[in-house]
Amino acid sequence: MRNYSQRLPQVLLALWLTCHLPGASTHAGAQTIDPSSGLWAGQVDLQNVNETVSGINASNQVIAGSLTPTAVKAPAHMRILFHVDTNGQVRLLKAVAIVNTNAAPDTSGTNHTMLISDPALYQNYGNNAGYRLTAVAFDFGDPSGEQALNLICSNAANAAVAPGQDPNAAATAAQQSILTNILPNATPAYSNFLQSAYFNNSALLAGPAAANALAGSSGQLTAATKFQIAYAAAVTALLNANMFTAADALTLNEVPMTGTTPGNAPGNVLTGMIYLGADHPTNPFRHKFHHDHQHGYAITRQLTVTFDTASSSNAISRAGFGVNMITGTYQEQILGLHKPLGPHQDIGLITTGPITLNRVSTQGTLNQ
Asked: Which residues contact 277 (CB under 8 A, 6 or more apart)?
């Protein structure tokens, strides 16, 4: 007999929400709405992980930094949340509130519920009834601030190496380019960071640091070595001024995924990346009160979800498969938690396991 005891709470939650929450039907109208739009909640059971020292492959050979995960004695369980908008864009969420707006149903009979992934919007709904789901295993840093500072440092270092170039001017030019080319989907927190004293002073520190690092350097050094010296000096200057700490404090509420939606495309693949900066407040290696651990290590999580087809041996035979329920295989490679593995030092920690998703709302819009 199969053991459904661990899966039962998720299944019951999905059924209860689907039956009782408003917003479980799509709006009628001429607009084409992705058939799998809505909120999908489920569970990942991590059952395999690669060896960090050595492993045994199918031929009974010992291999180091194996790409092939092997079974663990006790799996780890993670809740996971996806939202699919009306256009089919999939987003990984770390938390979502399902809020009843208390509005009367419209002419199509659709009740008005909102899916809120941005906690700053909770106050807009007062004391309206709602339910909050969280996926505590997922935390999203916003790499935009760190990327902006790295670009300034890189420009300053390149100018320090090139004859006749001014590192100060190069750093300032990079700073101005960032300010005038803000992406339309940038978060308010990132926009505020670009207006902060941390970012405004970044070029003033990066340029001189890159130039001074090469003062009196040997003519025997290659251009690549000089760049590394100048770049490291510029980054260190910004680190000491807590500019990277301010940049890594930026967070995201959702991460866009690449690929087709889970409900209407079984057998296809979703991919995405989560980034947690070295100075992010929740970085597991960072300890603000310990002198040796004030800076952590940047962590990158590369996610791949491959959905089962209805005829797959992994699929759960149930009415509604591919519409309100779907299964698949979850894989994650984590870089930054452990030294890189493999002969080329380019393999991270890899873990895999089955994933089950249930659609708990058909609301295709977030944060209205």
From this structure: 141, 143, 146, 244, 247, 248, 283, 298
- Give the residues of the chain that fall short of pLDDT 70: 1-31, 54-57, 62-65, 102-111, 261-267, 310-323
Helix, coil or strand: residue 13: helix
Could you tell me if 98 and 131 are in contact, meaning their C-beta atoms sit under 8 angstroms apart?
yes
* Residue 64 tokens, joined: 């180091």
149 close to 176: Cβ distance less than 8 angstroms: no
pTM for the whole thing?
0.79
Distance CA 33, CA 87 (A): 6
CB atoms within 10 A of CB 179: 13
Given this model, what pLDDT does residue 368 score? 78
Q: How many residues does the chain have?
A: 368
Contact between 131 and 95 (Cβ < 8 Å) = no
Please, are residues 358 and 42 in contact by the beta-carbon 8 Å criterion?
Answer: yes
**pLDDT score recorded for residue 314:** 59
Q: What is the largest CA-CA distance in the chain?
A: 78
Give the chain's radius of gyration (CA, Å).
24
Strand partners, 352: 48, 331
